[in-house]
Design brief:
This protein has seven helices and seven strands; from the N terminus they run ααβαβββαβααββα. It is of the alpha/beta class. Helix 1 runs antiparallel to helix 3 and helix 4 packs parallel to helix 6. The termini are far apart.
């Protein structure tokens, strides 16, 4: 039996067809679960099933709540995530932040049918690297996660498109960065999606170098950057004009 399977398949894989999965929670109190516990329940690779990103995300959410003196179940936090897959991580976020708004972005139309039972989840079928104006969604993001293609060129284009929609003191996080230097991943992606991508590691590193140089300047919009295994966390600086009102 596959220990990483949920509902018979690994829900987080790019090759998994977007198919709804709602586990039998039995007597589990979802409000008592940590973010890692919710990730494991729904089959997201953000928990112990694979990457353990949820530990970092919990700390990030606590920083966001502390800024606004909010408690988790009342926190009006907007989360955007690129890469819906089977909706596992959207369910994780929706239950962890029941008063928040969760937006998933994906280019596959089938993803739009997921999570319809969750009032605080919206799925937008659109290329996140070409978002343009978000006025129609009336939302800016406290936390924006790039869990999309993991292709270097897409990572750069998505950041250039979406960084502007992160609130001051908000977070932009890029996942699964080992994919930018694994040739087997590039070949698998090409085979699965039929895209002739280059996925040059140098393309991603040029972005990181540019962000580091920007962070060093006095007028930087980046407060800090930190790296965890396969995970880059970028925090936007709090606007000086807003500090007095926080």
């Amino acid at each position: 039996m596959d220990p990483m399977a949920r509902g018979g398949v690994r829900r987080y894989l790019d090759t998994t067809h977007p198919e709804e999965y709602q586990p039998n929670t039995g007597e589990v109190n979802l409000k008592e679960l940590s973010l890692t516990g919710l990730a494991d329940l729904y089959g997201s690779d953000k928990g112990t099933i694979k990457h353990n990103y949820a530990i970092v995300y919990e700390r990030v959410v606590k920083e966001i709540m502390a800024l606004n003196s909010q408690k988790r179940f009342e926190a009006h936090i907007n989360v955007g995530e690129v890469g819906v897959a089977c909706g596992a991580s959207l369910r994780m976020w929706a239950n962890y932040l029941p008063a928040g708004k969760i937006f998933g972005f994906d280019i596959r139309p089938d993803c739009g049918k997921l999570c319809e039972d969750l009032d605080n989840v919206s799925i937008i079928i659109q290329d996140a690297s070409k978002l343009g104006s978000l006025n129609q969604y009336n939302s800016f993001f406290d936390l924006f996660v790039d869990d999309g293609s993991h292709i270097s060129e897409d990572i750069v284009a998505t950041f250039e498109s979406c960084w502007q929609w992160v609130k001051p003191a908000g977070f932009y996080i890029i996942e699964d960065l080992s994919c930018t230097y694994k040739e087997e991943y590039t070949q698998s992606f090409k085979h699965t999606f039929g895209r002739d991508v280059k996925n040059k590691r140098e393309t991603f590193l040029i972005l990181v170098d540019a962000l580091m140089k920007h962070c060093d300047t006095k007028k930087a919009s980046i407060e800090y950057m930190e790296y965890h295994p396969q995970l880059l966390v970028i925090r936007k600086k709090l606007d000086e004009k807003l500090k007095s009102s926080v």
